[in-house]
Amino acid sequence: MKKDIHPQTNEIVIECSCGAKFNVKSTLKENTRVEICSSCHPFYTGEQKILKTGAVDKFYARMKKAEELKKKAK
Q: Does residue 15 fall inside a structural domain?
C-alpha cells in the first residue's frame, strides 16, 4: 500500500438545527451545522408536517367569496 496518499481524517461534531449532535470522522477540519437530520426528518420520525402557504389560503378565500356573491345575486 502506498503511504501518505490518504486524506487525514478528523473527529468532528455535526450539529443539527433541532439540537441533535453527532460525532463523526470526516476529512473536514471543523465542526459543521446541518438543517435536518435523522432525529427530525419526517421520513425517520413518522410525523408529517404540513406547511400552509398564504397563496393557497387566499385562493380558497376568493373562491368562497365568489360563491357567496353568486348566491346573493340570485
A: yes
Contact between 23 and 40 under an 8 Å Cβ cutoff? The reply is no
pLDDT tens, residue by residue, 30-46:
999 998 888 887 777 77
Sign of the Cα pseudo-torsion (18, 19, 24, 30, in order): positive
Query: What CATH number does the domain containing 25 carry?
Result: 4.10.80.400
Closest CA to 10 of 28, 23, 22: 28
Tally of domains within the chain: 1
Give the CA dihedral 36, 42, 61, 70, nearest 10 degrees.
Answer: 150
Domain that holds residue 53: 10-73
Tell me the per-residue pLDDT of 12-29, one tens digit each, with 9 for 90 and over.
999 998 889 999 999 999
In a domain, 4, yes or no: no
